[in-house]
Amino acid sequence: MDGVSAGVRARARIVARPDGRGGTALPVLDGDGPLAPRRTRGAGGEAHVLIVGAMSGPLGGDHFTVGAEVLAGASLRVGSAAATLALPGQGKGGARYDVRLSVADDAELRWLPEQLICARGSDLTVTTEVDVGATGRFVLREEQVLGRVGEEPGRLASRIRVRVAGRVVLDQELECGPGAPGGWDGPAGLGGHRAAGQLVVVRPEFAASPVAPRMLGESAAVLPLAGPAVLVSAVASDALRLRGTLDEALALLGQAPPVI
Asked: Which UniProt key words apply to this protein (predicted)?
């Protein structure tokens, strides 16, 4: 991170391609420091990977980068073995977590990590950049929890940008916690909730048959995007209720909730 000399720099990279037998091979499955991607048992032609945290973090001053590339004809699901816990570091700098995802035509990626928890005193910036081909399929789930049980939240700045066939269909920012612009916790923001999440689903058939906008209960909305994609935004009082809402949305969109 700019202006920060201390902290851990860690990268993980995954590349998926067809294996020629109806499945998916992983010619690149690399990680260092606290980022350890591990292949697990898949289903059908889909390869499954879990990202295992080999140490606590990110801490203040750390910079993590995770990338996945899914080539034409391949299918990949990526999860994490546990929640990511952002913690304050010994220095004054914040932490950074960058995610870079690429899905080719006729490829599929389901990016389904566990929750990100921003502990008291943490300062984390998360950026997610996604490129999907015109006939690619993609599911992303993001869940952010502000503080552990009974704890004041840390600061979180999050941005997600999704392009389909080179066209931006979503560019969304969220900033909350101490030091965030006023009103983040008010009626126009999180409304007193401490968990927020979103799903992004890209499917080619949405171009001809867009998903209709609707509410899911009182705290989640399904919104079609300007392209073959849909966004689900939700808030909840805790991580368990948030996951239940997002699983309901996945089922509504024809995507069975994952079992890892």
From this structure: Chaperone, Cytoplasm, Nickel insertion
